[in-house]
Amino acid sequence: MLAEPQEHSRKVLMVAFHFPPQAGSSGILRTLNFAKNLPANGWQPTVLTVHPRAYEERRDDLLKDIPTNIKVVRAFALDAAQHLSIRRKYPGFLALPDRWSSWCLGAMQAGLAEIWKERVQVIWSTYPIASAHLIGLCLQKTSGLPWVADFRDPMINGTYPADPLQRRMWSWLEPLVFQHATRCVFTTERAADLYRARYPQAADKCLVIENGYDEDAFLDNLPSRQGVPPGDILILHSGIIYPKDRNPEQFFVALARLVQLAALRGRTVKVRFRAPVHDHEVAALAQQHGLAGIVEVAPPIPYRQAIAEMMAADLLLVFQGSQFNTQIPAKIYEYLRTGRPVVGLVDKTGDTARQLRKFEGVALADIAEAADIEAVLSAWFTHPHADGASRAFNRAAIQSYSRKAQAVALARILGQAAGIAAGRPADVSRADACTSASTENTGSHVVPRHD
Q: pTM for this one?
């Protein structure tokens, strides 16, 4: 049960495209859980999002998780690919800064109305998508309020975005965010460092609140192995597979080799890719490597059912290639909370590998090296169960990544932003924010810059 809002709560307007009933983005959970837990920390949110028609995929199961005391304002919005295209083709200017740019005008009008009516003290917006930060920027410049810009991923990163017109637009928008935002929050230290180097004049603005897990999703939730006979082994990857940057091909090469060597020791194994989005590509790769009888591509299921499936898996897989070295998939925190064995198929120099090394009983293999993956899988098939000591250590260590702890961290940052705008010293310094979080045992990961 969520705590009631504190008396005399301050007000924050949260601008977020990804919010229930949207389906397919783990970013929903970051915004939803911030909104759920901020009232207990002195901040009453109003969520400004889009009309559900703008979502390509919708699922209603998380709507019931929106507390009744949270106001949700849904602005007019269209998806250019769905509503303004002919055979999925549409003029490029309709995708500036993204396919959902149509919500900018309505969101500006609705956002300003909420700012005046609710006496909002801080604006918060989250990327992806880019238009959310464009709205945050416009609201900040119009109202003069402090603005906290949340980056679940880097905006301009390597060759992304690839479209030249879109890249030019983002190259205009991104520096304006760092010029006008009071604080910029990232999900990994490496992403924050990337932007500290890119915008040194804004380095002191850059903080980190990592992704995490929702403890409520695990309470009264029972493991579920639907479709897996008793005694069979379930190896699970839950979530999006990118054929290039979360490429399972070398995993399939290694698995096929183990089958050929009879290394599965006569056991029946099912490798399930739950909601990989690129279903046909994953299935085709499995077929190509002779694994069609082992690999299953499964459709999306409601969030709590997905958690129950993770809880029942014999082995949980993470895929994260070098293109995503500054990012950590949110699912790893849910994986670690289950207490089940985890194998990370990663670039070992990336942030995902760094984070997984903090926990016991987690094996890492190079995502691009079939021999390395084969060795790790072979070792797991020989000793498939995590020891009790590792489970106990991980259960204790993962508590600091709960969404409630992260809401404490965000509330502290919102307080800093409000204090700066009022001409007062920030209520906690960047270093003190990290220290006090640790001292209070909240586990809030507000990470200061390391010079």
A: 0.86
